[in-house]
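Here we describe the complex-level prediction in full. Unlike the single-chain runs in Section 2.1, the two entities below were treated as one system.
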Amino acid sequence: MSFDGLAARALDTASKRGAAYADIRFEVNRSERIEARNGIVATLADSTSRGYGMRALVDGAWGFAASSDLSEAGVDRTAARAVDIARAGASIARRRLGEAPPKAYVDSFATPVLRDPGDVPLGERVALLFEAEKALHVAPQIRVGRAWMDLWSIDKFFFSTIGSKIQQTIRQSGSGMEAMAVGEGDVQTRSFPGDIGLYKAGGWEIVEQARLRENAQRIGEEALALLSAPQCPSGTFDIVLGGSQVSLQMHESCGHPAELDRVMGWEANFSGVSFLNVEQLGKLKYGSDLVTIVIDNTLPEGLATAGYDDEGTKSVVSDIIRNGVLTGYEMSNDTARAIGRTSNACVRAQSWEYVPMIRMCNLNLLPGDTPFENLFDDVKDGIYMESNRSWSIDDHRLNFQFGCEIGWEVKNGKRGRMLKNPTYAGVTPQFWNSCDAIGDKASWVAWGTPNCGKGEPMQSGRTAQCASPARFRNVRVGVGYGG
Amino acid sequence: MDSAQREALAKRVLALSDATQTEVCVFSGSNELTRFTHNAVHQNVADADVTVKVRAIAGRRTGVATTNVLDDASLSDVVHRAIKMANLAPEDPDQPQLPSGGETIAPEGSYVAQTAHATPQERAAMADAIFKAAEEQDFWCAGFISTSFAGVTIANSSGACASFDGTDAGVNVKMNGADSTGFAEGYDTDVTRLDAGAIGKTSARKARDSVKPRTVEPGPWTVILEPAAFGELFTYLGDHFSAQSFDEGSSFLSGGLDKTYLGENVTILDDYAHPLSPGMPFDYEGQPTQRLTIIENGVAKNVVTDSYWAKKLGRENTGHALPAPNAYGPQASHLVVAPGTKGLNELIAETERGLLVTRFWYIRTVDQKQAIVTGMTRDGTFLVENGEIVGGVRNMRFNQSIIEALKHCELSNAPHRTGGYAYSVVVPAAKITGFNFSSGTDF
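The structure predicted for the assembly as a whole is:
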């Protein structure tokens, strides 16, 4: 499908109406979701959505308009509307915020896919989930079993008045499962992989990586066992976090505070600000020397991997934290320019109808050199926790509290009995500075988050936080239950 | 697209299906939002779309397909895809007959033309009034002005055909000072009833009154939660009122109806026709929605159902279905907490020592069955001593069972709508004793 003619018309209309710069992003998005729940298919659905979003810049103010009307008249109306909206914003502006991107690209990108999910018969896709969901039901106390998969296809066509023409074919896939056990006055859940499933860029091979069938019975048994497991104790303990929990910890306490729009107050009324400021670059000791986090939007299988972001900036690899020191931010063109840097291509929109904004994309906590089982070696009295159950952090991204689905005692370097309801809390820099071991490459996973909320109107972003399990010292545990 | 056009489109698509049962939903809408920070607009957006969703039921097998491409071939394709998936799906023995609908009347004030046709210039004027409120106090503000229109038509092969046009508008302001912040909001289906300047001034007053915040110790506190705070907390009980969670054991009501779970002064309704939040009078299966008492004086009276859960539990269909496909069960989408008898100022005046909370942030469930949640205070938390507000305090984290909170609360006499587009509830302010704070912050 070619959008060249409509794009040229829209950009021309915007320019004639006074836009100093304009871009237009056409998208054709297809999704399929299947969910097996308690022996039935609760969801078997596919969706197609086609439309375009257009940005126009007038007197330093942005306007954005989106429509699914692909007629020439529709494109004209939408372009005019974007300019009108920008002009309304400019009329009350106390300062200029926007400028045209500095560079144009003509290029294309496609996600590497080993097996197109469309080549797998629908019956086979459903059967996989049915088998896994059935195996979760190891006892009558498993009142709810769920197994699901999402298959996403995004085709983007980006054009701008400075000459960009970028076509991207992005494929993302994910699957997961959950068992809910109900006892006397108690509800316990276990999920796999991680707490929301395994989501990555790619095709059917990503669904196969999750190994749902192979793990379903164990997950059901763990949910059941949690009903009679002792309560996680309260106090100060060394903790080891499973990889998916480190991923979420990084998402909430590193990824979000390092979004430069938050640092600059652009998300102040909703998602919040950041405890970070620009003067801390190169100075703040964010974590221990072991902690290095990079933004890598070129990473194979990273859920946010793309050739270009939604401002038309080419994906790059850049640092956020290097050997524990804050070294960078996730940036857009406008925010980067404000601090004398250039964008590192961290701008995404949920889909065609949403305005592009800074999103986390792929964060990568570089693996350490400690094999997973050796993370427990030096722990005399600690807790190992897996799979997130609740997450909360303040609007400066400092004071956090997380709960996990399951924990195990660690005594003198050995994992012991199972514990229910583990929670832990801390303050971001102190917590990351207490990290004294990170799992090796063998335990590293490109964990994806398919549903990160940010912005107004709220957008659901697809991010990745690649991580290994890790060890943290002297952490407050049990606070969620009054400890 | 107006309701007549949507109904014509829905019936056209319905006629394309030869499935045992078919449901067609047509959604049309536009969302416009002017967002600002540092007293300047930084995101200024508008979108419009029309979507057609087809649920095909072949015997007891269901498939759903959606498209926003409305040419004949695409509409035929979306029906074909839904039927194809239905034919491949396993049978669900509990699959009910689609509801046949019934007469519904949209509550007065649910659609306001001035909101549907609001311009970016009108939103800019409202934002400018907020900027001026900020500049008067040497603050900077962040927030949004939103206006939206949503049209829904549901038609099915059982004869249901229902349409609704609704509008909504919102003003949301966070005012920022050197060491304090304040928050205020307003939501209404009629944008002309929102006084953006006054909302800006309220948020500025809160920021001004909370300068130089002090630290107070965590622990059990008496709190007075303003509606924005109480509403967000209360929202986390919403899933407990679903027939699905009730039956599966994850609701605090799973022990059975007609039992006392909350304080006798607590009555909870689901009311789509509440004058502060007039909404859609039918659900996403076209079934008329009942105005339902869920908790009456602390006693559980009802859970909400859809056609599936009504059949499964042998209960009446209360008309609370979400759009198909729906793995989450029916939901109470118009929750109301009935007001009490005292004014907010009276609740404050009767407090020897407590905290007045404007707003919470990032509430998440810690324990589903006990409804324990954690979250933070935000944008205006004040110390109350001897019935007077004596100044701002630094923010704190709480861990609190909502059920326990609603056993020990007094409710104010003034209902407010809070929540915006993320959720919408009508609640009064609430004074709660023994509210558990677990830690503090430096801001």
